[in-house]
Amino acid sequence: MTNSVYTPQATKKLYRSRTDKMLAGVAGGWAAYLGVDAAILRIALVAGVFFTAGFAIPLYAAAWLLTPEQPGEP
């Protein structure tokens, strides 16, 4: 039996992207957080707008308001 020591890993934080953005950086920030390509999230968002009769638009707006912008130089 081995004695394992717990080593905490660095926690990822969710931010809106300053560099990978088309409108507000929401998709770029979420893509970086989830480890996927931002284009996939953007396509999913556009599809979501059509398949949910526009319900994805207020969700995007809420994510824009609630997700803090990535820290760094303006």
UniProtKB/TrEMBL annotation:
One of its GO terms (cellular component) is plasma membrane. Pfam families: PspC. InterPro entries: Phageshock_PspC_N, PspC. The keyword Cell membrane applies. It is found in: Cell membrane. The chain crosses the membrane at residues 47-66. Residues 12-69 form the Phage shock protein PspC N-terminal domain. Keywords: Cell membrane, Membrane, Transmembrane, Transmembrane helix. It is a single-pass membrane protein. It comes from the Bacteria. This is Phage shock protein PspC N-terminal domain-containing protein.
